[in-house]
Hints:
Elements lengths: L1 H16 L5 E12 L9 E18 L4 E6 L8 E5 L15 H13 L8 E7 L9 H16 L8 H15 L7 H8 L4 E6 L5 E6 L5 E7 L11 H14 L10 H6 L6 H25 L3 H17 L6 H11 L4 E7 L6 E7 L3 H11 L6 E5 L6 E2 L3
Parallel strand pairs: 3-5
Antiparallel strand pairs: 1-2, 1-12, 2-5, 2-6, 3-4, 6-7, 8-10, 8-11, 9-10
Helix pairs in contact: 2-3, 2-4, 3-4, 3-5, 4-5, 6-8, 8-9
Amino acid sequence: MTSEVKEQAVALFKQTFGSEPSVGAFAPGRVNLIGEHTDYNDGFVFPMALHGKVCVVVGRPNDIGTCRVVTSAAVDGEHRYEFTKPSPASPLTASESALWYSYFLGVLVSFDSNRGNIPSFDAAIATSVPLGGGLSSSASLEVATFTFLEQLCPDLKRSDQAEKALLCQKAEHDFAHVPCGVMDQFIATMAREGHALLIDCRSPPTGELVPFNDPNTVIVVTNSNVKHNLGSSEYPKRRQTCEEAAKILEKAALRDCDMPLLESRRDQLTDVQYKRARHVIQECQRTTDAVAALRANDMTKFGQLMYESHESLRCEYEVSCGELDHLVALAKEVDGVYGARMTGGGFGGCTVTLVRSDRSDALIRHIKERYPENRATCFVTTAGAGAAAVSI
């Protein structure tokens, strides 16, 4: 699939600019197996990169002093953007609105801080990561762009992968105005094929690769095709509420809290603050328990924790929706399914289901038959690799 997306990007480049690209890079989308809305609470998350679901950026330097970028996928209708080569005299700055190219521009600033070391260039972007589906299409674009710039400017390549991920996160904060945690950029940067990544999001964040390559088990990702936009949704409100709760509990972050502490201070919290904190505290524990279950190859336990996670996201964190709840319920009806949950920011997007390999087709058929108007789209995946250069 990476080669197909690369071919799409190369074809778009040739069609738009009339020449061949000279460098390129890809970064994967991701699915979070468990650990939702814990990353910005200094907690634990457990994502894996999506094999074959990638964003590819290809390009070459030009001599016109203007950077030109085109994409094959844009939700806002604008497929091409041009700007003066960033420099101290012509710095890139964030706008109030966040369009697809905001992520691209933010990475350019994070990469070189408008110092003028990036040459003017032409670039084309193609992706197979579903947009707005909670599978980190934004971080895959950011990390693919950063890796592309490393090919364009090899003297500026980062040796520290954590630094690279954090710079991409900063780009999303500053230019897309989304106060995201570090999970998406970390997994896109550090993923390894056949592994999930347990990320401790406390600064400085760290990642531990965990084997996830049982041939008898696969992941099915199901897109509800209900779109969401984290920048204008309830996401920032959830983050603020968690910070308020941690302050009342006199801890640096909810990751530092436990249920006895929460219950002892319940009368000091609003009902909403209590529910949000309860989810985060228990979700952190579920995540570490799930890693232990995976190491023991206990898929039944892992799946039960996924169901518990979804119920908490539905009732305590209130970020699910009817379509996601329906998809989880449908998965639960199929023999061979271990567990399912919503994944991503919520309010639409995707579910992730852990299922026996020989029952994935039956699961997909069941969803297609029972989900309203056959609107769900499904794909089977395994744990893929992180960002890298692509040969042109």
